[in-house]
Write a structure and sequence with these properties.
The protein contains 14 helices and 2 strands; from the N terminus they run ααββαααααααααααα. The protein has a two-stranded antiparallel sheet. A hairpin with a 7-residue loop joins β1 (49-50) and β2. The chain is an all-alpha fold. It has helices spanning 2-20, 26-46, 64-71, 73-106, 109-120, 127-138, 143-150, 164-189, 192-200, 205-216, 218-233, 237-243, 250-259, 263-298; strands spanning 49-50, 58-61. Helices cover 77% and strands 2% of the residues.
Length: 299
């Protein structure tokens, strides 16, 4: 009886160790849990309390903040607008970044590394500075309007700032390197012999791309899309400076709620944003998995 109990205890211990992962990963996982899961738990608790006029919250249980966030058309429209912009930015980054990654993967290692380093240089500059650069270029007295007015191509300064187009421009230019790097890493890892084998069997370059290169590069496409999408969904500084008050994204509404000391409602909005992002990512993963399972049947 004691031996069976000891065996059960050893089995539980092995399962716990397997769940925790290798010992080398346990400190990073604990650090991750402290910095992510603990604040998430605190936000979950705060979001179900009433707003207080004298403190962070009143310890009275309520679901009115979630009812407001999910029932008010203004916030639902802001959530949909956030999703729509993030999806559009992701697709634009994919359309622009995949050809660049494809060309980089075809280069020799030395020039490829040099170009990737040049591609990473903008990431070393603060996002705020890069956004202010676009404001200098597109502002009412910016470089573009000064050029147009000096050459009398327009009578008045064009409203190039604080609109959805400018927001797309800022998000795409700032997030594009993430897409290029993720796709390039996967394309470089593809064995060239696979494309050569397809060519030997009569496939031209276009068919090799569609039947070999593109399916094998889907993991890089997936990681790049998820990274760009999640960053776009949680963006705050770029929509604030380039979109202004005309383009409402949920991250800006969270900050406005915090500025007005409505912490419970800000926590509820944050969790709604997190839940919407996770559902969108899950849907994208499911769709991609379905397409990959159907691919052999079509072939």
């Amino acid at each position: 009886m004691s031996s069976s109990s000891a065996a059960e205890g050893a089995g539980r211990l092995r399962r716990v160790r397997h769940w925790l992962g290798p010992p080398v990963l346990q400190p990073p996982l604990a650090f991750y849990a402290l910095l992510f899961l603990a604040p998430l738990l605190i936000f979950s608790v705060v979001s179900v309390f009433q707003t207080s006029q004298t403190g962070l919250f009143d310890p009275v249980f309520t679901l009115q903040h979630y009812a407001k966030a999910l029932g008010d058309r203004f916030y639902l429209r802001s959530l949909w607008n956030t999703f729509e912009i993030s999806l559009g930015v992701t697709l634009l980054c994919l359309a622009l970044g995949y050809p660049v990654a494809y060309l980089l993967a075809d280069l020799r290692p030395r020039p490829r590394k040099l170009l990737i380093i040049l591609l990473l240089f903008p990431l070393l500059v603060s996002t705020i500075i890069r956004v202010y650069g676009w404001m200098v270029i597109l502002g009412g007295r910016g470089i573009v309007n000064n050029f147009l007015l000096r050459w009398r191509l327009v009578d008045d300064a064009l409203p190039l700032m604080f609109n959805t187009g400018t927001l797309y421009l800022g998000l795409v230019t700032i997030l594009l390197p993430y897409m290029v790097i993720n796709v390039t890493n996967v394309l470089v890892a593809i064995d060239p012999a696979l494309g050569e084998a397809a060519s030997i069997h009569g496939a031209d370059r276009r068919r090799v791309f569609w039947r070999v290169t593109l399916p094998l590069s889907l993991p890089g496409v997936l990681s790049g899309c998820l990274l760009v999408f999640t960053i776009s969904m949680s963006a705050y500084v770029i929509p604030l400076l380039l979109g202004g008050h005309r383009v409402k994204m949920l991250g800006n509404l969270v900050f406005e709620s915090i500025s007005s000391f409505n912490w419970p409602f800000a926590a509820a909005l944050s969790l709604v944003l997190l839940g919407g992002t996770l559902l969108a990512c899950l849907g994208f993963l499911t769709l991609l998995g379905t397409e990959r399972r159907r691919a052999p049947r079509r072939a």
